[in-house]
């Protein structure tokens, strides 16, 4: 299906909605289905990580992965309830997306179905606890995240009640940044033209999709009404990772076959390919982001990895650089990590269990 002649809007970016009030720590029975099972970390393990952070004196580099967002209802990749483990799903690659119109049609149709879920996730207690640690200078800025869900930004906005920008920063995938979070792989909330570089907010593109695909829009309204997109949080796990960490959703072939997507307003129908402002597999991290991440790794006094297996080299190399300088590395997550062999501390626990306790030890205690 060729892209439609209708062009994407360049309206000003709408303000981000304030997330709902944070909930306290919850028992396993009430956690989202996406959260993997794990034994709580021992007090001595928490104390050891807290001591490492204190000794770093505000220079503890934090690197976050998909395990940070499971308690917000977004599945991770590699845990027993993750997208890879449940369905054998593989994400879109940069090469496939750019290769054919059919692959872009498939991607945007599935993204259209998944965006209402991803865009309405609220930060968890883990996100809020990390924001508190950063506000009190207990960890290094920027926090580096591999996630594309913008929940770190929402947590900071929630904790501070007003989101203050630091002028002149050009991080977060090349977009205007705030100096507090470095998005290693970009964010789903922005769409970029691969020809001219023009950026559009994802909400605007969602409106274009609805206008171009009225039948799909009606189906979407019905899906939202029935909360079918929230089956990833179902206690029985009936549909497991229905919505993947990148917002992808399984759809029947007939739902994708006639789907239409717009082109860049500046470039026109045939040349202005719109792509989410994320680093797909097979693509390279934005040079500005790569330099900022390397600088953080080269100047930190400790590294705390949260909810990441470090399967991507863009994150693993940061840990290795710090380790080569003799800096301690602590890992928090339920599964194996590619840095297990060099870690000083390894807590096989949920990030949502560990971070609130670290906050209390380091900030309060």
Task: Map the helices and strands.
Blueprint lengths: L42 H14 L3 E5 L18 H5 L6 H6 L1 H18 L6 H11 L7 E3 L5 H10 L20 E3 L2 E8 L5 E3 H11 L1 H13 L26 H5 L16 E5 L8 H13 L2 E5 L6 H12 L4 E4 L12 E3 L3 H14 L1
Parallel strand pairs: 1-2, 1-7, 2-3, 7-8, 8-9
Antiparallel strand pairs: 4-5, 4-6
Give the tags.
365 residues; alpha/beta; Rossmann fold; six-stranded parallel β-sheet; 36% helix; 11% strand; disordered N terminus; Ssirtuin_cat_dom; NAD-dependent protein deacetylase srt2
How much helix is in the residues?
25-40%
Please name the CATH topology: Rossmann fold
Number of strands: 9
Strand order of the largest sheet: 3-2-1-7-8-9
CATH class: Alpha Beta
CATH level-4 homologous superfamily = TPP-binding domain
Radius of gyration: 20 Å
Overall residue-averaged pLDDT value: 82
C-alpha termini separation: 59 Å
Order of helices and strands: HEHHHHEHEEEHHHEHEHEEH
Second-tier CATH architecture: 3-Layer(aba) Sandwich
The best one-word shape is globular
Secondary-structure-based class equals alpha/beta
